[in-house]
Design a protein that fits this description.
931 residues; alpha+beta; 7-stranded mixed β-sheet; 6-stranded mixed β-sheet; 31 helices; 27 strands; 39% helix; globular
Length: 931
């Protein structure tokens, strides 16, 4: 879903798909990544084309294959889309597609090992998702390992091992995932509205399923579903990346042609599991009165839904333009009516269109003291204006530019291109859909936009829901206490031997040493650091900037000031008011987004190559001349207060806050957190003073990666930033040195009404400069670096089904950060999961890791390193991060040698010194925690 204010999205709403198909994840096999937003690339002739170089092949068994050669990075994306999703379900079998998606990682008859471990051993960036019209599995690997990934996907297409033991274990994981979704009042409200808007339709069901149905599935039922729909004729294989098509087709044919029956025709769509029910979503009579949920929570919410036609409707392009006119930036109609008016704190819109229908969704959170009815009235008034008054030609042109440019900017990843092809092939039934859509987009007129607004945004057709929170003491923290662990003992069991995993890995050629091209690094006369790397693979430029003005400079009295300053950088400058600045960017579709973190303000940006001067003009203006106008400051302050209230109702936010405040002493920058009270007390003068003190050129790092002439860009940079001066030494923060806790220290936060708890376990650990850093990377990779392939993931998630999400990490930065483990659990399983995690820590500390585990981890880290740097935007961010952290760029070129130099002895010594389950802070936030 498109949002204009919130930089962070819940995973259940984070999966972006093709230009038209803004998707919501129904469930993913791991909780840590989501598929990147795909879109078409620009061809040499200057027009958009995702499919110009795509080759479509149908094997004799009905498997549709889409291949596309993309040079530039030595990686390949392999994706398999099955034409079966929650659209094919009905009450009683709701969630079966999602349940099977999870079981597809449990192993096959030929490879009885967790597929997450196999993919992890390949160094793949992998995931899966279930949606209305499809279930998909995707991974990005080094090009030498693409054949191995193909063999793994072919194996689990027909040989997945689905038995009662696997189902029972993964059923608990799915339930944990759903419980995590249900923690969010927005999810509960949207589910209720969907059910009321589309009764008798699969679109009224949740993608992930219901507890009742999931608990009722039998292994035989899921296996029968798998055997019917997981076969070549129901699948589309997409392979995009650095390869030769003839050679790749040989590998594909060898892996997949033997599956299924020869001569089977590919299907356009799969039949519903329960026949007889209509999937049409238009023409139904919605409830007259708002659906009202009065439940425990922190903030009111509004969700309105209007039925839409299917994805192949000729109205789809006009609906997309309408959506951008309504809400796409600070110049859009709903932004002005709801956010600039001070009525809305957060929100978003999205026209969802699928194979058999769709809907237009509007979600908004009011600012404090704003009634939902007032917010709703403003929404209805704006929609009425669009129905009654034609939008301007300028608005239409800006929307078209934004849509076409964003599709270009969002395809810098090969994974994104592959996902777009897969979504188009399975939802629209045409892999060329996005190209055709973008062509039709250019023909949309103001009359078309008014027509679709009148046709689909009638008040009589909408279903609306209000979430009205009941009073609850959300986020109350329990006092810390020292003592021993008294929870139920949990035997973690023997570790999974990587040698066993290696037996089932398909063969692949060695990758060799990766060649990393470093940027040119220059320092302007004013101390500003600039890095430039020319990349001609796409007609775009990726921008990454960092200003050392992060939350470490917040104080308890003014906590939240850093974020408020960053959030107001685009609110106006000395020479441009908010709308003028917004139009500067929106007119060319350029993107610029500041966001604060602990150590800095990160500014991400992108534009077409020809529009780089516009992007740098906007960046230089907001870094040097921001004015923080009083009206905009007050409105953003109200939104920030509401955001802090919502954070106090989120178990993850509450848990990390209590964890840091328990671990660190008062005054330590690590433990300062904003609150509604501290944000509410801030003033415009506070923002101006902070900006003048901390935003300075010698605290700024800027990286550009893209299609530009370095010489010309240097001249431009000196023009834009040369007059920016800093006075006096740059401010610094002092971090006090703390020791580990004495014994086990427990604390908690009670959040009534939640279905899931979040736990953090940890203590202060090492800095980035510690000589054990590279050994800690290997150690943590085995311990909890991956939900599916680590010791923690294997034991707590895969074997025991205690958690949907578990991970660990060393926050080794310039300053020593915490080692921590995070767990998402059902409250009844929290104690068992904590004890299991502590036992795994103790086992690794006392017994160490095997030589094979270390070798496997090193190979995976080296492979994933190459995959992770294959995206220009990620590469630019990496360059900026290294220099901002005071590290040399040579860390990138030396990484492989330093990982290769890590020995099992070094890892096991690091484990003895860095893992301490007997002196640790335990914090849980959830229902009944902290009492």
């Amino acid at each position: 879903m498109k949002r204009v204010l919130s930089a962070t999205f819940a995973l259940s709403a984070a999966l972006a798909t093709s230009t038209v198909l803004a998707a919501v994840v129904g469930g993913s096999s791991t909780p840590v990544t989501a598929a990147p937003k795909p879109a078409p690339i620009m061809a040499a002739g200057g027009d958009f084309s995702l499919t110009r170089d795509v080759r479509r092949t149908v094997l004799s068994n009905g498997l549709t294959v889409l291949t596309k050669e993309v040079r530039g990075a030595p990686v390949v994306s392999v994706q398999v889309f099955y034409k079966i999703g929650s659209r094919n379900e009905a009450p009683g079998v709701n969630g079966i597609a999602h349940q099977l998606e999870h079981l597809m990682f449990k192993g096959t008859t030929d490879r009885p090992v967790q597929f997450g471990r196999l993919l992890g051993a390949l160094g793949a960036d992998f995931n899966a998702f279930t949606y209305y019209d499809q279930t998909a599995y995707h991974e990005v690997v080094e090009r030498e390992k693409a054949g191995a990934a193909l063999q793994l996907e072919a194996d689990r297409m027909v040989n997945a091992k689905i038995d009662p033991a696997a189902l029972n274990s993964e059923r608990n994981v799915v339930l944990s995932e759903i419980e995590g979704d249900e923690n969010d009042p927005a999810y509960r409200l949207e589910s209720a509205v969907q059910a009321a808007a589309f009764p008798g339709s699969p679109y009224g069901l949740t993608v992930g399923g219901t507890r009742k149905d999931i608990e009722g599935f039998t292994a035989e039922e899921v296996r029968s579903y798998y055997q019917k729909y997981y076969s070549p004729e129901y699948a589309t294989l997409i392979v995009v990346g650095d390869f030769s098509t003839p050679q790749m087709m040989q590998q594909i044919t060898a892996a997949f042609s033997k599956l299924g029956k020869a001569g089977t025709a590919p299907v356009a769509s799969s039949a519903p599991l329960v026949p007889g029910g209509s999937e049409a979503t238009l023409g139904k009579t919605p409830p007259k009165a708002p659906i009202v949920l009065k439940e425990a929570g922190s903030t009111p919410l509004l969700n309105a839904v209007y039925p839409l036609p299917d994805v192949n409707s000729p109205d789809a392009p006009a609906l997309k333009v309408l959506d951008y006119v309504l809400l796409s930036g600070r110049t859009s109609k709903l932004y002005q009516a709801l956010f600039e008016s001070g009525l809305a704190a957060d929100g978003g819109t999205a026209p969802y269109q699928f194979l058999r229908g769709g809907w237009y969704s509007f979600n908004f959170t009011p600012t404090p003291n704003t009634e939902l009815a007032k917010l709703d009235a403003a929404l209805l008034s704006t929609l009425a204006d669009v129905r009654n008054t034609p939008v301007s030609a300028e608005e239409i042109a800006r929307a078209k530019t934004s849509i076409s440019t964003s599709t270009l900017l969002d395809t810098r990843s090969i994974d994104a291109q592959a996902t777009s092809l897969g979504m188009d092939a399975t939802t629209a039934g045409d892999y060329q859909y996005t190209d055709k859509f973008l062509s039709a987009l250019q023909k949309v007129t103001p009359a078309d936009v008014q027509r679709v607004a009148q046709k689909y945004l009638q008040e009589a057709s909408r279903t609306v829901g209000y979430f009205e929170p009941t009073k609850a003491e959300a986020g109350a923290g329990g006092g810390a206490s020292a003592g021993g662990a008294t929870q139920e003992a949990f035997n973690a069991g023997p570790p999974v031997d990587p040698a066993e995993v290696a037996k089932y890995l398909p063969a692949f050629a060695p990758s060799g040493q990766a060649q990393i091209t470093l940027p040119e690094k220059i320092t302007l006369a004013n101390g500003m650091t600039v890095m430039l790397l020319r990349d001609t693979s796409t007609p775009t430029v990726s921008l990454s900037a960092s200003v050392k003005a992060g939350r470490e400079f917040d104080t308890d009295a003014k906590a939240g000031l850093v974020d408020l300053v960053a959030g107001n950088l685009l609110s106006g400058t000395k020479s441009r008011d908010e709308l003028t600045l917004a139009k500067l960017l929106d007119d060319v579709g350029a993107q610029l987004a500041p966001a604060a973190n602990r150590f800095g303000v990160q500014i991400g940006g992108a534009s077409r190559d020809k529009d780089l001067p516009v992007l740098l003009t906007a960046l230089s203006d907001i870094l040097q001349n921001a004015t923080f106008p009083a009206d905009q400051f007050k409105r953003s302050q109200a939104r920030a207060v509401q955001g802090a209230v919502q954070a106090n109702d989120d178990p993850g936010s509450v848990a990390i806050k209590i964890f840091r405040k328990t671990l660190y002493p008062a005054g330590n920058p690590w433990q300062v957190f904003s609150s509604p009270e501290s944000i509410g007390a801030l003033t415009q003068q506070d923002a101006t003073a902070f900006y003048k003190t901390y935003y300075r050129p010698d605290a700024t790092v800027l990286t550009l990666v893209g299609n530009f002439d370095p010489s010309s860009v240097k001249t431009l940079l000196n023009q834009k930033f040369g007059n920016w001066k800093a006075a006096g030494p740059a401010p610094k923060v002092v971090y006090s040195v703390i020791g580990k806790p004495a014994g086990i220290v427990t604390a908690g936060g009670d959040l009534p009404g939640k279905t899931q708890s979040v736990t953090y376990l940890g203590y202060q650990s090492i800095a980035r400069s510690d000589p054990r850093y590279y050994a800690s990377l290997v150690l943590n990779d085995v311990l909890g670096g991956s939900t599916l392939s680590s010791r923690l993931g294997t034991e707590l998630r895969d074997k025991e089904g205690l958690t949907y999400g578990v991970s660990s990490g060393f926050a080794a930065l310039q300053q020593p950060g915490a080692f921590s483990i995070s767990l998402q659990t059902n409250p009844k399983d929290t104690g068992k999961a904590i004890q299991g995690a502590l036992n795994i820590l103790r086992d690794i500390r006392d017994n160490g890791l095997s030589t094979t585990e270390v070798a496997t981890s090193k190979n995976g880290l080296l492979s994933s390193y190459i995959v992770g740097l294959s995206n220009p935007a990620a590469l630019a961010s990496t360059f900026t991060g290294l220099v901002s952290d005071g590290l040399p760029l040579s860390e990138l070129t030396d990484y492989q040698a330093k990982i290769n130099a890590v020995t099992p002895a070094a890892v096991n010594q690091a484990a003895k010194e860095l893992l301490d389950p007997d002196n640790i802070v335990e914090v849980t936030a959830g229902p009944g925690a902290g009492k």
